Amino acid sequence: MRYLITFSYDGTNFYGYQKQPNLRTVEDELESALTYINGGVDVIIHSSGRTDRKVHAINQKAHFDLNKEIPLYKLKDALNTYTKEDIYIKNIQIVENDFHARYMVSKKEYIYKINVGEYNPFERNYVFQFNKKLDIETMQKEIKDLIGTHDFSSFANKEDKKESYIRTIYDAFIKKDEDIITITFIGDGFLKYQVRNMVGALIETSTKKRKIKEILDKKDRSSYGKIAPPEGLYLKNVEY
Amino acid sequence: MRYLITFSYDGTNFYGYQKQPNLRTVEDELESALTYINGGVDVIIHSSGRTDRKVHAINQKAHFDLNKEIPLYKLKDALNTYTKEDIYIKNIQIVENDFHARYMVSKKEYIYKINVGEYNPFERNYVFQFNKKLDIETMQKEIKDLIGTHDFSSFANKEDKKESYIRTIYDAFIKKDEDIITITFIGDGFLKYQVRNMVGALIETSTKKRKIKEILDKKDRSSYGKIAPPEGLYLKNVEY
Q1: Are residues B52 and B126 in the same domain?
Q2: A80: which chain B residues are within 8 Å (Cβ-Cβ)?
Q3: What ipTM does this complex have?
Q4: Is residue A100 part of a domain?
Q5: Residue A165 falls inside a structural domain
Q6: Distance CA A64, CA A123 (A)
Q7: Which pLDDT tens digit goes with each residue over B28-39?
Q8: Which residue out of A122, A127, A128, A236 would a mutagenesis test of the B interface target, given it has the greatest number of B Cβ atoms within 10 Å?
């Protein structure tokens, strides 16, 4: 039986999603719980993709196979019992045997939160604290140039060699609610660090008058400054 | 010069407000920062009162004396630099030399947050997760019996011997916003564990049909069940 789970996690205390020896990761925590539930027989989990250290997920998805059929509500309870409080399994469903949580993704949505107001200790791990002024209107105009099918080399991690840096962004927009700016990106998939790099560049359209179109056209990461920090980033949704 | 600071803290990673040997406390963190700023000469800080382990503060207040006059914005910056990210000094003002942050309190406001919806890992340290149904209307009716001047022995910590258990609650009410129930208490002062005990009893007015008036009249802590956990509690305001 192939199961698809939808889960959230607070990335603060994880060394990212992907397994690494001797470090606490989301993947390892879930596989350990599943293997325990599976009577000690290893279970491999396939997520929609990785998230970096300190990045959060609201609706991450992953599939795995179990030889036995477990009632879904029992499996959900067991997974929530055997994972710590910063992971929560929201939903489990049975999917076709040829379903794949990574290769069949049609759409991913990320959001990035920036606090331009006073520092709030309760939000320290959940927003990027930005103490300079941001010109939201300029950023709202510039973000539109990211929509569409482009070569996103300028927003890729230099060490991350890919066959293609072409991705499609279906929609991207910025909303401001009191002191919190939320930037949303919906696309067919994103390169490693792409969203945080796009946010870093967007901030510079305000602070350094850079133009997104010029940065895109250069196909070079060095055409703007800093990557935005991980704590403001959330994987919000994955669609198939 | 006597200074009054208003500050917030996320109580999750502190062993409470009050200093204890070899444990991380809010009081110790602030005094260490102040002593450092004061060139190594000890500074004693007097807060409006303690908060327990894992309890939060949105606007806690405290006073201290410094022999030198430091511009307020510089002192604020220095204090925020030398304390960790889970404490934030919001405001500093100069007060009269006979001002006392504890003895001159006229009003304190606490709020308590309960999540009756689905578990949310991002809120795990900031709300009490309650998975049974709560009859808010009953609780809203019962909470009114806490308003006024009463002997709150039934809501005190048994080990906390006081001359008087009489306190005045000026206002107390319950609001529900989606799945979050917020209970507010405004009073002249509260006994150790009083707010969390009142919340525990209020929950039992719904789940066990207990009556607040009967609990109050018994003047005995054993007339109801559990104390509410600390993570839902916030010291919201202190007035002089």
Answers
A1: no
A2: 119
A3: 0.91
A4: no
A5: yes
A6: 33
A7: 999 999 999 999
A8: A122
End position of a domain, from candidates B67, B95, B123: B95
Among the candidates A95, A124, A144, a domain finishes at A95
Size of interface A-B (CB pairs under 8 A): 38
CB atoms within 10 A of CB B75: 18
Q: How many domains does chain A have?
A: 2
Residues A91, A111, single domain; the answer is no
List of long-range contacts for B129-136, beta carbons under 8 Å, 24+ apart: B130/B203, B132/B207, B133/B206, B134/B181, B134/B203, B134/B206, B134/B207, B135/B206, B136/B174, B136/B176, B136/B181, B136/B206
Tell me: pLDDT of B112 over 90.
yes
> Which helix (DSSP H) or strand (DSSP E) does residue A217 occupy?
helix A212-218
Candidate list A10, A28, A52, A98, residue with the active-site label:
A52
Instruction: Judge whether A162 is closer than 8 Å to chain B, CB to CB.
Output: no
Closest chain A residue to the Cα of B86, Cα to Cα: A121
How many other CB atoms are there within 10 angstroms of residue A140's CB atom? 17
Which helix (H) or strand (E) segment is B11 a member of? none
B13 touches chain A (CB under 8 A): no
Tokens 């790099």 sit at which residue? Answer: A197
**Which of chain B's residues have a Cβ under 8 Å away from the Cβ of A87?**
121
Residue B52 known to be catalytic = yes
Q: Is the pLDDT of residue B27 over 90?
A: yes
Q: Is residue B102, in this structure, part of any structural domain at all?
A: no
For residue B113, the model assigns a pLDDT of 98
- Among B56, B86, B121, the residue with its CB nearest the CB of A8 is B121
Q: What are phi and psi of B91, to 5 degrees?
A: -155, 145
Q: Which domain holds residue A207?
A: 107-239
**Nearest-CA distance B88 → chain A (Å):** 6
Q: Are both A141 and A166 inside the same structural domain?
A: yes
Is the pTM higher than 0.90? The answer reads: yes
Instruction: For residues A24 and A21, give the distance between their C-alpha atoms in angstroms, rounded to a whole number.
Output: 8
Q: Do residues B56 and B236 touch, judged by C-beta distance below 8 A? A: no
CATH assignment of the domain containing B200 = 3.30.70.660
Q: Tell me whether residue B211 is exposed, middle or buried, using C-beta atoms within 10 angstroms of its C-beta: 0 to 12, 13 to 18, 19 or more.
A: middle
Q: Is B158 exposed, middle or buried (0-12, 13-18, 19+ CB in 10 A)?
A: exposed
Give the separation between CA B182 and CA A163, rounded to whole angstroms. Answer: 52
Q: Is the pLDDT of residue A174 over 90?
A: yes
What is the C-alpha separation between A17 and A110, in angstroms, rounded?
15
